[in-house]
């Protein structure tokens, strides 16, 4: 039976903590998933490269926060 592993990164910010949950990426070229949350905003991204997928998810979170403030 395979155990599922998750890596959690906490990034402190002025207005709260950004939580990054990383699933997969066990061997090169395997699909992984990154979930990022900040306060009540969450986004997910999937990809084959761990670092690029984390950056992509953080960029999506930034866009979601900026677009939410405009409303």
Topology:
Blueprint: E1 6-13, E2 16-24, E3 32-38, E4 41-47, H1 50-70
Antiparallel strand pairs: 1-2, 2-3, 3-4
Give the overall average pLDDT.
Answer: 87
- Which class do the helix and strand fractions yield? alpha+beta
| Portion in beta strands | 35-45%
Q: Report strand order across the widest sheet.
A: 1-2-3-4
**Net shape:** globular
Distance between the termini: 47 Å
Number of helices: 1
The poorly predicted ranges are: none
Helix content: 25-40%
Can you describe this structure in just a few lines?
The protein is of the alpha+beta class and 71 residues long.
Characterize the structure shown.
- The protein is globular.
- It has one helix at residues 50-70, and strands at residues 6-13, 16-24, 32-38, 41-47.
- 30% of the residues lie in helices and 44% in strands.
- It has one domain.
- The chain contains 1 helix and 4 strands; from the N terminus they run E-E-E-E-H.
- It has 71 residues and is α+β, with helices and mostly antiparallel strands.
- Strands 1-2-3-4 form a 4-stranded antiparallel β-sheet, with helices on one face.
